[in-house]
Design goal:
The complex is a heterotrimer. By secondary structure, chain A is an alpha+beta fold. Chain A has 5 helices and 5 strands; from the N terminus they run E-E-E-H-E-E-H-H-H-H. In chain B, strands 1-2-4-3 form a 4-stranded antiparallel beta sheet, with helices on one face. The chains are: A alpha+beta, B alpha+beta, C alpha/beta. At the A-C interface, helix 1, helix 2 and helix 4 of A face strand 1, helix 3, helix 7, helix 10 and helix 11 of C.
Chain lengths: 181, 82, 500
């Protein structure tokens, strides 16, 4: 992914000037866990997943905000921590799957607490759900039009959002009374 | 087989066909991730390295190393009872 | 294969963990919000299957482990906690008219002018709507009138109330009514009907005069004070006439954040012990003025915490006052009871918990949904049955989407206490599928729940009051209301004690 020499290496992390490369072996953390970990940190960094999801993946990590308190190395380490977090989440989910299903079915649908018998019941209640695709616009779609009513729009347009009357200023501050009087 | 090295307040433990199940290693690291930077890297779930670095640079990594294995021990014991 | 994995006569339930590393404590929370606080040593014993009797009992009582003895209790608790699933639509919101005599800065309803034609519900549509509403299997229902300004079509309100009560003679549901109103058109004649039928009245009261008037204006006379009108109505109907079933809510914009003491003062002096400090939502007119109205989640959270501290201070001084959103969260934490507040429900209740019936008979998944174009319109009272709409693809998608079973919500310790608004996510981000932890609502909810738990667990002087908040929302008119001078003195005492 990069021909440069890393400035520093820690564990599976190679640190470069503007990015870090984190090596992840798929036999230890499959792609789903890598994606979950990266998704969780999406508001702090940029994550590019490269490599072979069957063998070894290399995740490029960059800071979103170069002025942020978090350093690039810390973000890469946090990514490793999140890999553990989601790996354990999958382990825990698998361990408790049976008891969760039993309780949910028995409580909500009045089905028996026997896992085997429960699995033989009709699962029509679990309908498939399709998730809407994202719109082409991505972020903010065009806001729903404020339905007509010209005089209403005029009034709304006349709203002075800059607070010339000092509405947002606390009474105490405005009239000069200090706490403790 | 186990092998460990200490360097720069980080302990690196190599697990190669060891007695410790991978799942339990993950579980313990999950407990430690609050106070430590942790990582697992290696060939597969029988041959890998674990990295533990306390987030507090003044903390003693040898204690973290000891606690890590004690945790593993406790989970191993619980797993055996099952 | 055994029925369930037995481990010395117990099975561990699924838990999420909140760490308190400085205190060496861990808070374990199960799938339906029952929790236990363990010291680190206790936690290790739990983890290592090395529990003593005391710890075992503690975990059993709090449903962290499942035993033959508590298995039934667990089912009961789980069922109670998820009562809204399969209960049937219980909050039925009806729009008698979209017309309104006010224009408010943050109005989400996309109201029409008073003199516009074609935005009123007809009696025929009202009848069809009530017929539809009674197809819901819910044993208790609230029919809530909103708008626009619903009092502009009081004849429809009367018709719906009377017809619904007639139908209910056969259905025998617990039936309640509520009107969300600016109060301007309320008079003695309307009030007599409201009182006779025990209809809840919910006013908007944004705070002291300058703040309230700044937010909310009469459309045809923007310079006239709307505060004076609503203040007079609340005092008259609530305090003089003694009508307990009056409520009020403020909308908190950027202009309100630092004015929380002034706003709470208004509520206390109007005899309103329940006060909701809730973030403004991204709908309607608020979208246009969003940059000016809204705030960063961190700003809101800091202000909200100050509100909680102030209200607790007032409680200790004998003044009954509680924050509405905090109380709903506390109901879940303290009493393991889902209060049915849509914004904190999982799933969110889109149609399955609440539905909105517009003036023309259109049915929407919820109140906010009608402010979109038609994305969340699911049917019409003339064409569809309740049964049809429970199988509506959009409703199912929203149920799935708001169940919080996506990995990053399912992994959050506050999962059982939280809820999302898929409609708002769609409005803000153009998709139902968003990175939830980065949304303002997630940041705010997380901080609120975290703060309340911290106070409950680690602040013994505040915990009893918070537990009381979690027991119920007590809206009774207080026996004694402090004078303005008395309240101002309390404010000064609070400020000198806490420097806020």
């Amino acid at each position: 992914m990069s021909d440069e020499k890393p400035l520093q290496s820690f564990a599976n992390i190679d640190l470069f000037a503007d990015f870090a490369l984190v090596k992840v072996n798929s036999k230890i953390f499959p792609l789903s866990i890598v994606v979950s970990a990266a998704y969780d940190l999406m508001d702090k960094g940029y994550f590019v997943i490269d490599g072979d999801p069957e063998k070894e993946m290399i995740v490029e990590v960059r800071l979103q905000d170069s002025n942020s308190q978090t350093s690039l190395l810390e973000l890469a380490k946090e990514f490793n921590n999140q890999l553990i977090n989601y790996a354990f989440y999958e382990i825990q989910s698998a361990r408790t799957k049976g008891v969760r299903e039993v309780i949910t079915r028995a409580a909500l649908f009045g089905q028996p607490e026997d896992v085997e018998m429960a699995e033989s019941f009709d699962t029509d209640n679990r309908s498939s759900c399709e998730v809407c695709d994202t719109t082409e616009n991505g972020d903010n779609c065009e806001s729903s039009t404020i339905n007509d009513g010209i005089d209403v729009d005029e009034i709304v347009d006349s709203f002075d959002f800059d607070d010339p009357e000092g509405i947002a200023i606390p009474w105490d501050e405005k009239y000069g009374k200090s706490s403790g009087e | 087989m186990l092998h460990r090295t200490f360097k720069d307040n980080t302990v690196v433990v190599t697990f190669k066909d060891s007695v410790y199940p991978f799942e339990l290693v993950v579980e313990v690291l999950n407990e430690f991730k609050e106070s430590c930077w942790v990582a697992i890297y290696g060939e597969d779930q029988t041959n890998f390295k674990v990295y533990i670095e306390p987030k507090d640079s003044s903390a003693n990594v040898e204690i973290a190393y000891g606690e890590f294995f004690n945790y593993l021990l406790g989970l191993m014991r619980a797993a055996d009872i099952k | 294969m055994s029925k369930f994995k037995l481990n010395r006569d117990y099975t561990r339930l699924n838990v999420r963990i909140k760490n308190y590393p400085e205190r060496k404590e861990k808070l374990l929370i199960n799938d339906y919000g029952k929790w236990v606080l363990l010291k680190e040593e206790e936690y290790k014993k739990y983890l290592f299957d090395d529990m003593d009797e005391v710890l075992f009992k503690k975990l059993e009582e709090n449903h962290i482990i499942r035993t033959p003895e508590n298995a039934r209790d667990i089912l009961e608790s789980f069922r109670n906690y998820n009562w809204n699933v399969g209960n049937g639509t219980s909050l039925q919101i009806l729009v008698p008219t979209l017309r309104c005599n006010f224009t408010c800065k943050y109005c989400y309803a996309l109201r029409r002018n008073v003199d516009e034609q074609g935005f009123d519900m007809t009696e025929e549509t009202a009848k069809k709507t009530v017929d539809f509403i009674f197809q819901s299997p819910a044993k208790s229902m609230v029919i809530e009138f909103t708008g626009g300004e619903p009092l502009l079509k009081f004849d429809i309100i009367k018709f719906v109330v009377e017809y619904a009560k007639e139908l209910n003679k056969k259905h025998k549901k617990i039936l309640d009514f509520a009107i969300v109103t600016n109060g301007n058109l309320l008079d003695d004649e309307k009030f007599e009907f409201i009182r006779k039928n025990k209809i809840g009245l919910c006013f908007s009261l944004d705070g002291p005069k300058d703040l309230h008037d700044f937010h909310r204006k009469f459309t045809h006379d923007p310079k006239k004070s709307s505060y004076e009108d609503v203040s007079r109505k609340i005092k008259f109907y609530r305090l003089e006439k003694g009508y307990n079933r009056t409520f009020a809510i403020p909308v908190i914009t950027k202009y309100s954040l630092n004015r929380y003491k002034d706003i709470i003062k208004e509520y206390v002096l109007h005899g309103l012990p329940i006060f909701r400090f809730k973030y403004v939502t991204y709908f309607g007119f608020a979208v246009k003025g969003w940059e000016s109205l809204f705030y960063e989640p961190e700003e809101f959270i800091e202000a909200w915490k100050r509100v909680i501290r102030f209200l607790l201070f007032l409680n200790k001084k004998g003044i009954r006052a509680q924050e509405n959103l905090a109380s709903y969260i506390l109901m879940k934490i303290v009493n393991n009871r889902d209060p049915g507040f849509a914004e904190l429900e999982r799933p969110c209740g889109a149609f399955i918990g609440q539905a909105l019936y517009d003036y023309d008979g259109s049915i929407y998944t919820c109140d906010e949904a009608r402010t979109m174009d038609e994305e969340f319109k699911i049917g019409n009272v003339y064409e569809d049955t309740f049964y049809d709409l429970t199988r509506n693809k959009l409703c199912k998608t929203m149920v799935s989407n708001s169940s919080l079973l996506s990995f990053n919500c399912d992994n959050c310790p506050w999962y059982p206490y939280c809820g999302i608004c898929p409609v708002e996510n769609y409005k803000m981000h153009g998709s139902l599928v968003v990175n939830l932890p980065s949304t303002h609502r997630c940041k705010i909810h997380k901080a609120m729940i975290d703060y309340l738990f911290d106070l409950l667990l680690h602040s013994p002087e505040d915990a009893p009051y918070l537990r009381k908040w979690g027991d119920s929302l007590d809206n009774k008119i207080p026996e004694k209301i402090p004078s303005e001078e008395e309240f101002d003195a309390l404010v000064k005492e609070f400020e000198s004690k806490y420097g806020e």
